[in-house]
Amino acid sequence: MEEQVKTEKRQVLSQSSWAEGEFRGIELGDQRLEKRFIRVCEDLSGQPEYPINQASSDSAATKAAYRLFQNERVTPARILAPHRKRTIERMRHEEIVLAVQDTIFFNFHSHKKTKGLGPIGGSTGNLQGMIGHSVFAVTPQGVSLGLIEQKIWTRLGFRDDPKESERLPIEEKESYRWVEALHKTKQATEKIQSTRVITVSDRESDIFEFLAEAEQLGAEYVIRAARDRRLEGEEASYLNSYVQGCLPQGTICLEVPSENRTVTFAVTYAQVSICRPIRKIPCNYKKPVSCWVIQVDEQDPPEGKEALSWKLLTNIPLHSVEEACEKLLWYRCRWRIEEFHRVLKSGCRVEDCRLQTAERLANFLTLCSVIAWRIFWMVHIRRASPLASAEVVLTKLEINTLRAHKQFSAELQKHQRLTVRQVVTAVACLGGYLNRRNDPPPGAEVLWRGLQRLDAMTEIFDSLTGCG
Prior knowledge:
Number of helices: 16
Order of helices and strands: HHHHHHEEEEHEHEHEEEEHHHHHHH
Structural class: alpha+beta
Number of strands: 10
Radius of gyration: 24 Å
Largest sheet: 10 strands, mixed
């Protein structure tokens, strides 16, 4: 982590803004278009809650932003490419990286003039919008490193016969996104020899083709089980009954934030061989898949409460209860992508954007995903590397702006070298964080509000002092 921080510091020092560093090497086929992209990125990241016309500095900048998103040379793939390179660079400094997959729905139902949208949610509703599926790189300590992959698309509609999907090969189903993202992750990270990349995802990824493809690719995973699968052998015919017949091998105590209590779980693990499912359209994988199941059950739940329980599947060999508990802790990092999506929706307010076509919205959503990652990263880098140089997260101009602010000048000016913790806390205070002795660390919401104020202050400070 410290080596990663040093590398990022060198990159930031050579750039005048974080956007120039993160999107270094973007290829849009036109240098003027690339410069405009950086300017639009800076405007939107400085005012993440505002729509394009308010985030832009003037009417000319607003028109330039609109033209950028509708330009045929600008695509989600080209926007994501340089950020993915930076993500891979950050991953190289980690022994283990969790590639967390998840899906998000963008609701644009109220945007009646927007063309190219499709149905989202269930088939009984009538909501219109777009769908995104992302692979988010996270360390086991919870620090986000960036996006490895992202796909944004529009549904054409729902099938008239819900059972029709049962007769389709996996490649023609929407659920293939989990297998496709697994392939993309393997392709993007296969050259990182020093880093183990483990895919982590929720119940929707519990697809036999996903398990089988991971086995063929040699891709490690930890996913939550959703189905009571048929097992090979005579001792037990199905997964649930087999695990219930095993004795727990140990316990683990975990904090459950949603219930504000510490829970003791019994931990059971076992190796199993999962048979391929019986379908009208048989899958391409003929052999059973070997993996390990981890079952965790709450011991002595409070009266009136149902016991908490999880069942995980992994293809990483387990030799002890400590190794099984480690995989459980990795799975708990899956919530990081849920928090990232919250920043994207609530912090960047992407569902308020009215670019009037799905193609333009896809470009906008991809850019805002990187902006949302930066906000989310600042939350956790403060906790993981609090004593690192402030220049890892902010430009010199932004740091000087904070030093000059009367709220922080007495504290910040007496330190020649500022740290990540000092400047991120100052930014959070601009967003309403009180910074009292017993307050928890600042979260994403106060940070995105603080960054918005800092951007406006920095522009004024630069115009008055010419420090930029």
